[in-house]
Amino acid sequence: MSRLEFLLLFFFFYLFKFCLADIGKASQYLPPYTPTACYGGDLSQFPVSNLFAAAGEGVWEDGASCGRQYLVRCISGASPGACIPGQTIQVRIVDRAQTSVSRPSLEGTSLVLSNTAYQSIANPDVSFLNIEFQQFHASKKKKKNEILLLKINWTHLEWWCWASSD
Q1: Whether pLDDT at 96 is above 70
Q2: Is 144 helix (H, G, I), strand (E, B) or coil?
Q3: pLDDT grade, residue 151 (50/70/90)?
Q4: Rounded CA separation 124/99 (Å)
Q5: C-alpha to C-alpha distance for 78 and 28, rounded to whole angstroms
């Protein structure tokens, strides 16, 4: 094995450890959004961007997911052209999908996105999306290059990584 091949292989495996996103389905829900399972009727729970979500049972973890933030991108949808290419959003978990006041467009999904969040990454007329999502760990002390979003695109292969650079 040449030195170049070894370095490329090392680089690939080094990046791979940071590229651990989950794959799941997302649906959307419309207002009213309150009360929520996480914060009741407190309106300050909602980000000003309106990019928030209700956690499906696989993400809920008995309420531990309340307040967590996730990076979400659309991979595909129920129909061709469902996704808005190149869009990644950051959502905050404010509710539990199973008990939300407003019902999702499809039951049993990993995340139920607010109407605004859903429309940011996909055609709102599509009933569900296949998504890639990863928990986003925000640091209270901002650092230069705190979050690195890396996209490697080789012809038809698209690979996304989110990594923290300490």
Answers
A1: yes
A2: coil
A3: very low
A4: 22
A5: 13
Confidence of residue 143 (pLDDT cuts 50, 70, 90): very low
* Token pair 């989950």 in the structure block, residue: 22
**What is the token pair recorded at 37?**
């399972």
**CATH tag for 17-164 (out of 2.40.40.10, 1.20.810.10, 3.40.50.720, 3.20.20.100):** 2.40.40.10
DSSP, res 40: B
For residue 90, report the phi and psi dihedrals to the nearest 5 degrees: -115, 120
Q: What is the 3-state secondary structure (H, E, C) of the chain?
A: CCHHHHHHHHHHHHHHCCCCCEEEEEEEECCCCCCECCCECCHHHCCCCCCEEEECHHHHHHHCCCCCEEEEEEEEECCCCCECCCCEEEEEEEEEHHHCCCCCCCCCCCEEEEHHHHHHHECCCCCCEEEEEEEECCCCCCCCCCEEEEEEEECCEEEEEEEECC
Terminus-to-terminus CA distance in the chain, angstroms? 32
Candidates 156, 2, 31, 6; CA nearest to 100 is 31
